[in-house]
Amino acid sequence: MADDDASLLEAAWEARERAVCSFSHFKVGAVLLDDAGRRFTGANVENASYNLGLCAERVALYHALTHGVGTIERVVIVTEAAEPTYPCGACRQALWEFAPGAEVLLANRHDQRRIRVSELLPHAFDASALPDP
Ligand code: THU
Predict the structure, then answer these.
(1) Would you kindly state where each structural domain of the chain is located, as residue ranges?
(2) Is residue 57 among the annotated active site residues?
(3) Distance from C-alpha of 49 to C-alpha of 41, rounded to nearest angstrom
(4) Is the pTM of this model over 0.85?
(5) 3-122, what's its fold?
(6) Parallel/antiparallel/unpaired status of strands 103-107 and 112-116
(7) How far apart are CA 42 and CA 32, in angstroms?
(8) pLDDT tens digits for range 53-97
(9) Whose CA is nearest to atom 9 of ligand 1?
């Protein structure tokens, strides 16, 4: 099957190779899969003005959102850290906003973890807390 774990992981590793991370040297690759089977990839991008950098997950997510993504069902994130790495807090918030029902697969070269976006950000803040405009 085209969208099985192995295939998505391969795409994430490939995306990771395009990371622009000359400051941290920490490459991250991400792939989103939507309900139509479309994939959107991203890698982290850094800047000499450090706070302008963007994580792989949000690069993939914002690309997906501006290129007609449907319902995001899966998120795959790969690094070569000693343990599979969980998304940062900012990415959890962004994923909650746009992919609340997604399953997340985290992997390094020899290990994997599976968790849902809803588990990554319990008690999330979102638009449900805001007054009607
Ligand atoms: N990074 C990601 O791409 N995703 C995360 O969830 C955590 C961190 C990137 C940001 C930065 O380019 C590098 O990893 C080191 O923090």
Answers:
(1) 3-122
(2) yes
(3) 24
(4) yes
(5) Cytidine Deaminase; domain 2 (3.40.140)
(6) antiparallel
(7) 9
(8) 999 999 999 999 999 999 999 999 999 999 999 999 999 999 999
(9) 55
Distance between CA 47 and CA 68 in Å, rounded? 28
Amino acid code (one letter) for 42: G
Q: Hey, which of 88, 92, 108, 117 would you mutate to test ligand 1's pocket, going by the most ligand atoms within 8 Å of its Cβ? A: 88
Residue to probe by mutation, ligand 1, list 27, 49, 55, 86, most atoms within 8 Å of CB? 55
